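Sequence in, structure out.
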Amino acid sequence: MSTAAPTLAVVHTAVFAAVPAQVGAARTWAATTSGLPGDTAADLALIVSELATNACRHSCSARPGGAYTLTLTRYEDRVRITVTDAGPRPVPAPRPSSAPETDESGRGLALVAAVAHTWGVDNDTGGTRVWAEIRTDTGV
């Protein structure tokens, strides 16, 4: 029988207007809130930027007055970044793509997949949740 205490998670949530001008605010909030060091903070900022930008460009949250929720869930060994939006426009589910080198967009989820330990998409009637996890060495 194990007597080890269960791992607790620390959850932080914020809501942002789904407009490109708010992506920087989401990135700053996440970096400040997470308290992660150096390269790990840079990975977190990249993931937040890409997921928030996708919510602003490709979801129903992009409609006037729309918003998305950014949640950071900090575990002992990892942080989960989740962006929840108002649901997809009537297009296929998001997936990484290999955009031509000349394109200025289209690489967001490929970048997330390259930086994150794991990532995924959950769709339901409440919207779309795109999440990614990065490993940490700093504990909760």
